[in-house]
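Design request, C-alpha cells follow.
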C-alpha cells in the first residue's frame, strides 16, 4: 500500500516556479524518504482499521442488547494525520518542517435517536 500521490507530492523544481522561494530550494523526496512515508501510511491505515473493528464491536453489542436505538454514538478527532507532500526543509537542530496535507475530512460524527442531517451537511457514503 502506498501513500496518496497527490499532484503536489514531490513536486519537481520545474513545476514549483510559482511557489515560495523556500519551496523552490527543496530537494526531491528520496527513495528512502518515500518508503518511510509509505510505511507510515500503512501503519496509520492499520490503526484506522483497528478503530473501525472496535466501533463495529460496540455497535454490535448495543444492537444485541437492544440499546442501539437509544444510544448516541459520537466520533470526534483532531485534524487527522499529516502526510508529507513536499520535501523537508530546515534541520534537526531547528526542528523539522514539512509541507503537509491533512488527511481527515470528517472531524465530528454524531448518530443516535432523532439525529437529522443538517441542511447543507455532507452525508457519509
Amino acid at each position: 500500500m502506498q501513500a496518496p500521490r497527490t499532484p503536489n507530492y514531490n513536486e519537481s523544481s520545474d513545476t514549483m516556479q510559482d511557489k515560495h522561494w523556500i519551496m523552490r530550494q527543496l530537494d526531491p523526496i528520496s527513495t528512502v524518504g518515500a518508503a518511510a512515508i509509505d510505511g507510515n501510511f500503512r501503519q496509520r491505515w492499520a490503526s484506522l482499521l483497528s478503530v473501525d473493528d472496535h466501533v463495529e464491536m460496540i455497535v454490535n453489542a448495543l444492537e444485541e442488547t437492544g440499546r442501539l436505538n437509544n444510544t448516541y454514538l459520537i466520533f470526534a478527532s483532531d485534524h487527522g494525520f499529516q502526510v508529507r507532500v513536499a520535501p523537508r526543509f530546515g534541520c534537526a537542530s531547528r526542528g523539522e518542517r514539512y509541507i503537509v496535507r491533512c488527511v481527515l475530512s470528517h472531524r465530528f460524527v454524531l448518530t443516535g435517536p432523532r439525529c437529522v442531517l443538517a441542511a447543507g451537511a455532507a452525508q457519509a457514503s
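Comment from the thread starter after seeing the answer: thanks! Residues 31-64 form the longest helix (34 residues).
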